Amino acid sequence: MTTIDFYTHCADRFEVASKLVAKAWAQHSTVRVLTDGAQATEEFGRFLWLWPATGFMPHCQLQSPLATETPILVDHALEHDGPAAVLVNLHPSPPPFFSRFERMAEIISLDETDVAAGRERWKFYKARGYEIRSFNLSERA
């Protein structure tokens, strides 16, 4: 069963997501990032080119000809047929394919709309019996 980690009180969702992607890539070799639309897919892809400044995380979108060879997939498509080690969710709804993954990270910002959507996802997973852990990132600042 998928283990779900909620990272709450995130000042910068992309930075937190990038750190989690780097860690997951190092530990599991494959990562999928689900964004909430084409613009967010492009923005997060650009972010991965810039952060961390001294590193590079190989990534592409699902429709790329290199998708089967690339360890990090960033896309907004609500489907996933590839490797299923770690999923980083930046989408406001539970991904329809999340249960295929060993682990999933939910990243919740300080924005009230994002917090409300995160609470709904928490309830959704909890009602289905998933193990959920929570990490309050404001306590680590």
Structure report:
The chain has helices at residues 13-28, 38-50, 112-127; strands at residues 3-10, 31-34, 59-60, 72-75, 86-89, 103-109, 131-136. It is α/β, with parallel strands linked by helices and 141 residues long. The protein has a single domain (3-140), classed as Rossmann fold (3-Layer(aba) Sandwich), CATH 3.40.50.10110. The protein has a 7-stranded parallel sheet with strand order 3-4-2-5-6-1-7, sandwiched between helices. The longest helix is centred in the N-terminal third of the chain and has 16 residues, at 13-28.
Entry keywords:
7 strands; 3 helices; alpha/beta; 141 residues; Rossmann fold; seven-stranded parallel sheet; 32% helix
Write the layout of secondary structure elements.
Layout: E1 3-10, H1 13-28, E2 31-34, H2 38-50, E3 59-60, E4 72-75, E5 86-89, E6 103-109, H3 112-127, E7 131-136
Parallel strand pairs: 1-6, 1-7, 2-4, 2-5, 3-4, 5-6
Short description:
The protein has 141 residues and is an alpha/beta fold. The chain contains three helices and seven strands.
* Largest beta-sheet characterization: 7 strands, parallel
What is the name of the CATH superfamily?
DNA polymerase III subunit chi
The helix tally amounts to 3
Shape: globular
Total DSSP E strands: 7
Structural class computed from helices and strand pairing: alpha/beta
Q: Could you say what the CATH architecture is?
A: 3-Layer(aba) Sandwich
The overall pLDDT, averaged over residues, is 93
Topology as H/E string? EHEHEEEEHE
Number of domains: 1
CATH classification class: Alpha Beta
- How much strand? 15-25%
Low-confidence stretches are none
Named CATH topology = Rossmann fold
The multimeric state of the shown protein is single chain
Task: Give the termini distance in whole angstroms.
Answer: 31 Å
